[in-house]
């Protein structure tokens, strides 16, 4: 008991120390390099991960791995669907939905059915992401009203993840990739581009390490005369479990082309594998959340207070709701 108590104190101290360091260097300045192409794909996916400060690259253990790290799909044992909706400010809404299907060798021999189930062929997934804003008043150069306009950005993501042989005993290595189609529509002017992401995930005892590289083949879109190319981005994620896996702590380090390094912190405590409480922190928001899991159903909620460091109150708070359903025994 003594060493567990000491580990808890150490973890809390490290968490607090890192948060204070983020405040000291004032990572709020990272907000100033926003507005890059494809920024809507940095919002996040899944109420669980959003309540943990957007830390999920080193966890990636549900259907939202299609968004965070496709390698995590290899760890899923059941077909699964998940959905998220967030009502944001100024008539803006964000939605995410994903479904995954583990692939197994088919057999008609009951004697080999169990072993065939273990011979996994990997897992495929499909996700849809959308961010839209409506109700803008359009005017011409003479200030005459032209009606209402809107902006919509969306992505369809086809994912695959699988485990590969790994020489370290008690560990495994998974790799994955995303093929994505992204679309931008601004007041009826639209274009679609295509890109590829890759990811990896490995574990050693209670430590899990993930790597996600987005836009390794970049999407390019042209609206009228302007051409936008999605920037290369890499995220390194770590997660560690304490107290018989009931306490999960995570940190993600993200570096996007032409942007400052971003740090995300998150933690989750699960009681009796039924109820979870969560908290997170990054340079723009502080988050809290909870989740309830019953049999194959999970209901999650995330609350975010935006612009945590700078103290801006115009963006205020947001609420995110998520539902996950798993199939099979």
What's the N-to-C terminus distance?
35 Å
What is the CATH topology classification name? Porin
Number of strands: 16
Number of helical runs? 4
Task: Please mark out the parts with pLDDT under 50 across 5 or more consecutive residues, or reply none.
Answer: 1-33, 112-118
| Shape type | globular
Total domains, how many? 1
Using the 3D structure, state the CATH architecture: Beta Barrel
Name of the CATH superfamily: Outer membrane protein transport protein (OMPP1/FadL/TodX)
What's the CATH class, please?
Mainly Beta
Task: Give the biggest beta sheet.
Answer: 14 strands, antiparallel, barrel
Sheet with most strands: strand arrangement: 1-2-3-4-5-6-7-10-11-12-13-14-15-16
What does the average pLDDT come to? 81
Question: If you had to describe this structure to a student in words, what would you say it looks like?
Answer:
By secondary structure, the chain is mainly β. It has one domain: Porin (Beta Barrel), CATH 2.40.160. It contains 4 helices and 16 strands. The chain has helices at 2-25, 47-50, 65-68, 110-118; strands at 80-87, 92-104, 120-139, 145-164, 171-186, 189-204, 207-217, 220-223, 226-229, 233-242, 247-256, 262-271, 275-281, 285-294, 297-306, 317-326. It has a 14-stranded antiparallel β-barrel. The protein has a two-stranded antiparallel sheet with strand order 8-9. The longest helix has 24 residues, at 2-25. The chain is globular. The relative contact order is 0.19.
């Amino acid at each position: 008991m003594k060493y567990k108590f000491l580990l808890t104190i150490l973890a809390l101290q490290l968490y607090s120390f890192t948060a204070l360091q983020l405040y000291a260097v004032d990572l709020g300045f990272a907000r100033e390099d926003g507005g890059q192409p494809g920024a809507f794909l940095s919002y996040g996916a899944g109420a669980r991960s959003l309540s943990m400060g957007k830390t999920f690259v080193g966890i990636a253990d549900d259907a939202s791995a299609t968004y965070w790290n496709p390698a995590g799909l290899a760890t899923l044992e059941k077909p699964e669907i998940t959905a998220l909706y967030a009502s944001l400010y100024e008539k803006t809404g964000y939605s995410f939905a994903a479904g995954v299907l583990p692939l197994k060798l088919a057999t008609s021999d009951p004697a080999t059915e169990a072993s065939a189930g273990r011979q996994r062929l990997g897992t495929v997934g499909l996700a849809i992401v959308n961010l839209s804003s409506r109700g803008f008043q359009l005017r011409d150069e003479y200030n005459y009203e032209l009606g209402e306009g809107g902006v919509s950005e969306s992505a369809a993501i086809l994912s695959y993840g699988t485990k590969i042989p790994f020489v370290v005993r008690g560990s495994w290595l998974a790799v994955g990739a995303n093929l994505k189609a992204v679309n931008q529509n601004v007041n009826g002017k639209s274009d679609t581009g295509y890109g590829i992401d890759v990811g990896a995930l490995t574990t050693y005892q209670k430590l899990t390490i993930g790597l996600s590289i987005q836009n390794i083949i970049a999407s390019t879109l042209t609206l009228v005369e302007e051409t936008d190319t999605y920037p290369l981005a890499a995220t390194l994620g770590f997660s560690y479990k304490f107290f018989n896996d009931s306490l999960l702590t995570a940190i993600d380090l993200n570096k996007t082309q032409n942007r400052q390094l971003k740090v995300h912190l998150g933690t989750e405590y699960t009681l009796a594998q039924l109820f979870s409480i969560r908290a997170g922190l990054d340079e723009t928001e502080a988050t809290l959340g909870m989740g309830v899991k019953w049999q194959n159903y999970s209901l999650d909620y995330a609350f975010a207070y935006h612009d945590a460091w700078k103290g801006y109150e115009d963006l205020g708070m947001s609420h995110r709701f998520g539902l996950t359903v798993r199939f099979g025994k």
